[in-house]
Amino acid sequence: MPSCYFPTKNLVVRQSEAGWELKTNNMATKTTNAKIDTEVVDPVLDKVLVNKLIGVVRKGLSCGLGEAKPGKMCVEAAVCYAYGLPHNDNPPCVGNAVRAFKIQLNDSTWTSPKARAKGMIELSIAQLNSNTIDQKVFSEELMLAAIRTRGAEIAKKYDLTEIAKTLKTAKTFTEVYDMLITVRDTAEDEKKEFMQKLICGCTSSVTGKADYVADAYAQLQGQHRRTNVYLIEAAQLCLKILKKMKSPGCKYLYLLNK
């Protein structure tokens, strides 16, 4: 049966007929659904791991979990694969809100698996060990960034000039909530749907906010099947927040240029 070893906590993850078994310091836990205890697993983040992840992601990313084969799995499963973990989309080193955003973005309508990989490869690295950053702050910053940029632009497009100015400098959801509703009621088609997702996100949970931001950009992308421009915009928005919050994986982004 396959197994993998994480030296930081003398942890062995081993597959048995009953499922995956985690053992460390005479303590063992078992799982049959391939989910790993985030308090137990503490794998090493280094250049070797990141280079392996880069190699896997560059082969393409699937919509949905996929298979445990390079080029046929989603972005979070690719992280598990690089670490030698069981095939699943819940790598323990990724924060819950970051994961929620990434999964929604991954499963959006990209033009191809290779395009999905190209658009998300920086995020696949930057998200590593993002479980160490404040997930509430991350999701709120991500939502506010979407409001300040694309939300303000949509308001401006419909000649809601004063609202656009306020959205561009939004600091809290309360101050702009009614304005978002006004923009939604004025906007049309996918832009109306985009604003509705932001409105829902303002009052949602920590992971819900992140999920709604990705879904909002997916709504915009839905009308532009031959390009990935809005999904790429969403990815870059998230990347900017992860860099700002100093997510540990960000310091390995330079390896993409090697």
Summarize this structure briefly:
By secondary structure, this protein is α+β, with helices and mostly antiparallel strands.
Radius of gyration equals: 19 Å
Q: Whole-number average pLDDT?
A: 87
Number of strands: 4
| Major sheet details | 4 strands, antiparallel
Proportion in helices: 40-55%
- Beta content comes to 5-15%
Dominant shape: globular
Low-confidence stretches: 1-41
Strand order of the largest sheet: 1-2-3-4
N- to C-terminal distance:
35 Å
Order of helices and strands: EEEEHHHHHHHHHH
Count up the helices.
10
- What class would the helix/strand composition place it in? alpha+beta
Write the layout of secondary structure elements.
Layout: E1 3-6, E2 11-16, E3 19-24, E4 27-31, H1 47-57, H2 75-83, H3 96-106, H4 113-126, H5 135-157, H6 161-168, H7 173-186, H8 189-202, H9 206-221, H10 229-244
Antiparallel strand pairs: 1-2, 2-3, 3-4
Helix pairs in contact: 1-2, 1-4, 2-4, 3-9, 3-10, 4-10, 5-6, 5-8, 5-9, 5-10, 7-8, 8-9, 9-10
Q: How would you describe what is shown here?
A:
- With 258 residues, this protein is an alpha+beta fold.
- Among the domains are: 1-42, no CATH class; 135-247, no CATH class.
- It has helices spanning 47-57, 75-83, 96-106, 113-126, 135-157, 161-168, 173-186, 189-202, 206-221, 229-244, and strands spanning 3-6, 11-16, 19-24, 27-31.
- Strand 2 and strand 3 form a beta hairpin.
- It is globular and about 50 Å long.
- The relative contact order is 0.13.
Give a quick set of tags describing it.
four-stranded antiparallel beta sheet; 258 residues; 4 strands; disordered N terminus; globular; alpha+beta
